[in-house]
From TrEMBL:
Record-given protein name: Unannotated protein
SGNH hydrolase-type esterase domain sequence ranges: 44-208
SUPFAM superfamilies assigned: SGNH hydrolase
Gene3D superfamilies in the record: SGNH hydrolase
Pfam families named in the record: Lipase_GDSL_2
Amino acid sequence: MFQIFKRKSLIAKLLLVAFTFAVSIGAGSSTPFTPNTSPSLLIIGDSITWGSDYFAKAQKLVAGDGQWANVVVDGQYSRRVAFPTPNTSIRMSGVKSYLKLKAAGLNPDAVIVALGSNDVAMESKIEVYEKIIRDLMDTIGNVPVTWLTVNRRDTKTIAARSVIFNNVLIKLTAEYPNLVLSDWYSVINSNLKLMAWDKVHLTPTGYTVRAKSYQSSAREIYERYWIATLPTTTTTAVTTTTTTVAPVVPAVTTTLPIETTTLATTTTIATTTTLAATTTIAATTTTVKPIP
C-alpha cells in the first residue's frame, strides 16, 4: 500500500514537473477584446503572466472590478522586453507584441508590464537593460505604465542580474514620469515558497498572489488614468483699462424775463358838428390794460 501511494506521489510530481516545463516552453495566450473601445488595460508579460491567467483567472479578477471596458492579459513563453538588435520575432518581444495588438484595434489607455525575467537570463549589461526598457516605454507612449520588478533565482548569476535590472527600472522612473514600479521582487523574497521548483515560475498559490498583484496594480493605474483624462482648466489673465472721462457740464442758459408794460392810452377825439342844433358827443376813452 505504501509503495502504491509512493508511486502515485511520484507520478503527480512528474506531471507537475512536465506541466511546468510545458508552461516554460510552450504556453501563450491573449484574451479577446473589443477593438477601439476605451478605457482599455493591457497586461503584457511572459509565461508567468500566462500562468497567472490560466491558474488564477487574472483577467476575470481584474475585469470584475468594472473599471475597464477591455482587460487584455497577453502572456507568452520566453517573451523578452525587446531585442537590442533587430529581430523579426513577434511573440518573443514585448515591443512587437504591443504593436501587433495596436494593429488589431487595441488602444491601451494604461499598461501593466510584467517582463524582464527572460532578459536577465540572456543579457547582463546595464546599457542593454536600459535600451530595451526605453524601447518598450517609447513604443507604449505617454499613458500610465506599471512595471513589475523581476525576481528570478534559478542561478546566483541570474539572481544578481535581477537586482541590476530592477535598479535600472528605478533609475528610468526619473526619465519616464508615467512609469511606476510594483515591487514583485520583495513579494517573492518574503515568501520563497511562492516559486515553483525551477525558481522561475510559480506554484498555484504563487499564481494566485500574482493575479491579485495585477488587480491591485490595475486599481492604482486606473486612478492615474482617470486623473490624466480630467479636463485642463486654463486661466487667462484679463487686462482692465480704466479711462477717466471728464464730466460734460451742460451750459446753463438763464433767460431773464422781459417785463413789458403797456401804459394806458387815452385818446380824446373832439368832433363838432353844427347842425340845426349843437350836439356835443362825448369822447370815448378806451383803456388797454397791460397783459400780465
